[in-house]
Amino acid sequence: xxxxxxxxxxxxxxxxxxxxxxxxxxxxxxxxxxxxxxxxxxxxxxxxxxxxxxxxxxxxxxxxxxxxxxxxxxxxxxxxxxxxxxxxxxxxxxxxxxxxxxxxxxxxxxxxxxxxxxxxxxxxxxxxxxxxxxxxxxxxxxxxxxxxxxxxxxxxxxxxxxxxxxxxxxxxxxxxxxxxxxxxxxxxxxxxxxxxxxxxxxxxxxxxxxxxxxxxxxxxxxxxxxxxxxxxxxxxxxxxxxxxxxxxxxxxxxxxxxxxxxxxxxxxxxxxxxxxxxx
Amino acid sequence: xxxxxxxxxxxxxxxxxxxxxxxxxxxxxxxxxxxxxxxxxxxxxxxxxxxxxxxxxxxxxxxxxxxxxxxxxxxxxxxxxxxxxxxxxxxxxxxxxxxxxxxxxxxxxxxxxxxxxxxxxxxxxxxxxxxxxxxxxxxxxxxxxxxxxxxxxxxxxxxxxxxxxxxxxxxxxxxxxxxxxxxxxxxxxxxxxxxxxxxxxxxxxxxxxxxxxxxxxxxxxxxxxxxxxxxxxxxxxxxxxxxxxxxxxxxxxxxxxxxxxxxxxxxxxxxxxxxxxxxxxxxxxxxxxxxxxxxxxxxxxxxxx
Lengths: 279, 305
Description:
The complex is a heterodimer of chains A (279) and B (305). Chain A is built from 15 helices and no strands. Chain A has helices at residues 21-34, 37-45, 48-62, 64-70, 74-83, 85-93, 97-104, 107-112, 118-136, 138-152, 156-160, 164-187, 193-218, 228-239, 250-271. Chain A is mostly helical and 279 residues long. Chain B has a six-stranded mixed β-sheet with strand order 6-7-8-3-9-10, with helices on both faces. Chain B is elongated and about 75 Å long. The mean pLDDT of chain B is 88.
């Protein structure tokens, strides 16, 4: 009698109920991404500003002379999140193959022939960029806040700025959602991850450049609506209660960002199909 | 017995193109071949049964479940091997198959164990740690079968499973399919345009042509009553002899290379052909018996001469 039957056997075990496939997809993608050396290096490098800010907070909390010109304020956290914009861009762009790779290898029809819905598939693909973007924004920002409390030895700063934790969370979530939806929608439009990366970079940099050009020509800051980055800045300034006149009213920035997310979801709805119908 | 798949007046349209027109068919348990020329609607039917394409009209039931109402329950109980190359990028075979098992609801440990077992079963045991992108075409066909089997489905949809395989690989794949259907008690629907594949592996056949059902039933029944098909070549006025055979009630047709295929019922026998030839003064130069094949059934069903 063989110790191990290498023939086909019927499965007698239990099966999980439907609805959890999104987490299997997300987990697998994150695990694959974390195996890449370049991605590991990127995550490490993205924490460099955190280290610098932590040192700043340490000296500001322990040295009165340093505190005079490097005092920790809500702007410290707002500036930190702005500094992380490049890390967010790189983390997102490394996930340009999220759906493009599946399209290239015809994996969509495999996924959608399994007991999972299109919504679960999209959710499973949305989670990795969300998690990694929050990992380089929300996580270090909250850690900085904790370090501030630890180094100063009191909750005075937090009590004086109770809005800070919700502000960090809200802005990080807005940035993560916008980036994740954008890269996912672009990824569904092509079979080439490189092309998707170029499109994403093009949109980010081209819109920012166009805004500067139009602003220079017309002397109007209202052209900021064409740049998602500028819209995020308007929202960040509002959330962190920064002084200064915003380029456009906050509600306009919110509408623009919601519109981008909406368009991305419409694209995903149309592109995530097992069968591509060419009429 | 409840049919495994039941279609009632199903029509599927791609834009202005009607891919399936008012199709009604039942697929019994066991191995059923879905035959048809390219563009007949075989893949469309499978995709509609998987719930990937919504039919414009009609009702479909798979394993007793309504496709429209319970697509997830159905997909949890079936395995699908697509026609074209398909895999999840940047995974080795065992990870890929285990991943597919997890997507079908298997716990991670069970999915991994079954992935190993199924990969051995399909003949990829030694190559299970290799990246799928390095696989040959034949190996990619096997891995597609493995991912369709990993969760132990009740019904398998195999869409052109021997596409691109060399003769040896093709024979091995057909053996596997035959084993799955006849020894492992898994129902399967094999879509193919290769008649020998269907004839070797299946008991029943559904012939599709131009989006409609051209013939359906057990292969043995469709092959017709007892009798034999003879290949016949004659010297003399072949057209007159052909007309004479038809006049005598024999079913016959000519092929491209002057060979006639004649169906002779058991009660008449081949000697009757010689008698008929002598009566019409033609000389029989070649007579070879062959059994009716699915090719004959198919040709008849789709109206080929």
